[in-house]
Structures are given as C-alpha cells and as structure tokens.
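The instructor's notes for this session suggest beginning with a concrete chain rather than abstract definitions. Hand out the sequence below and ask the class to guess, before any prediction is shown, which regions might be ordered.
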Amino acid sequence: MDTKTGIKELGLLGSFAIYIPAAILMYRLTTYLIPYLCCITGQEPILFWFIVGGLGIFTPLIMTGWLILKSEGYRLTRQTWVERLRFREITRKDLQWTLIGLVAVGILTLAVVQGLVWLIGDFDHSPAFMSFEPLTNGRYWLLLVWLPYWILNILGEEFLWRGVMLPRQEVAFGKYAWLIHGFGWGLFHIAFGWQLLIMLLPLIFIQSYIVQKTKNSWVGVIMHGAINGPSFIAICFGLI
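After discussion, reveal the predicted structure:
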C-alpha cells in the first residue's frame, strides 16, 4: 500500500485477473453472440456491436470498477471521484500533454498503417462485427444507438482502466506501470483482430503513459473520446 495515498497495489496477478476475463468476454460476445443476433434478425452487425458492446461489455466494466471501489471501502462520492479515481480539474499542463499525445498518436498510427500496407498490402482493419457502410437514408437512426454506446464505451474503459486500476498499478510498478497497463489494455482488444490491434498500439501506450504522467483520468477520457468519436462520425459520412 502507498502510505501517502492509502491506495493498495495491484500487481500482475491482480491486474490480469481483470484483463483476461474482460478480454474473454469481449471475444466470446463478438465471435458468437453478435453473429447469432445478426443471423436471426437480418440486421447489420454494427447495430448489435453497439447494443452488445454497451450493455454486455462496457456496463460490466463499470460494475467491476464499482465493486473494486466498494471492496476498498470507498463510496461513489465527489471526494472519491477526485482523489481516488483522479478525475480532477483539467489544468493547462494537462491540456498540453493531451494535445501532444493526440498528435503523437495520429502520426504514429499513420506510420503503422503505412508499414502494414507495405508489408501485407491493402487490408480491411475493421473486424466483422464492426464493419459497416457509410450511412444512407433510412440508416441515420444508427447514430441514436451509437451515442449511448459511445458514452458507455468511454466511461466504462476510463472508469475501470484509468480511474480504478492505474493508480493501484502505479503503487506496484512505479514509473513502469504504464507499460503493464498498456499491455493489459491491448489484451482486452484482442477480439478486434491483429491488424486493428497493431493500429491501436500508439493510442494504447501513449495514452497510458500520459494519464500516468498527468495523474488525471480526464486526460484519458479526452484522448480516447477524441479519437474514437470523430473517427466513427467520419466513417459514417464517408469521409474516411
């Protein structure tokens, strides 16, 4: 335990006791449940990714985080939110680090994509359960399903990974916690397929490092949301 903060350490065993079941849950739901629901309804997979992902994956992440906090003796109060989960007021320095991180993620992701194209040729990086065509008349309602999913996605991951787990991993691993954290976060995304997972590596490790550097979980929310949300909207309208 860190005697200054009262936060208990979360070592390798404890960390991967959370990462591995979460990864298995994601893999099984996307491999079996989503295709089954598509088969019996005739609806496109992206719809069920929003529903199954939001309710079956990211909501359980929020519940897991809450149960961990409860086991530590915390209640969901403003003090817990600010001091334990580190959702603190954003400073100018935090915003500077966030901007640096987003630029670095953008540059390195483009480099990774170009490297993959050079190695294996053109490829479709979207897994089957996330593939969809740009929105057309009669399909814009999907945006109404996407919005609550997006909120649960960002909230679920940032609440559990950055808010609950990272501070405890810092007690266990010190300045190298972001490496363990990034590896586990990457493992969670293994159902996305190796191409997309490789593309996500810059975000996964840079965001982990910067959130640890700033010790502000809002930085993770901004970085994750700024990349996840606009990129989806751009695909929806055929911009990328």
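Then share the key points. The chain is about 75% helix and 0% strand. The chain has one domain: 12-236.
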